[in-house]
Amino acid sequence: MEEKEIGKVVRYFSKIGIAAIRITQGELKIGDKIRIKGSSTDFDQIVESMQIEHQFVEKAEAGNDVGIKVKEKVRENDKIYISK
In terms of CB atoms within 10 Å, which of 20, 24, 36, 62 comes out highest? Predict the structure, then answer.
């Protein structure tokens, strides 16, 4: 499966399991399969909910900072890939 880098983790909120992600190219939508990869992070998951400024959104585009619920701990600068 082809993967394309679309952004990176800018912050992780461990208490609530939310990753703040900066979308650098393309777009991210609810239902997309993503891979989060870093020096000690590597897992796949489906995007089930996203927020921008505490508002639920269906999609985010390049330039947006978006919060998504993640199933594992992530770290700043982990890369976000979308599976095509």
Answer: 36
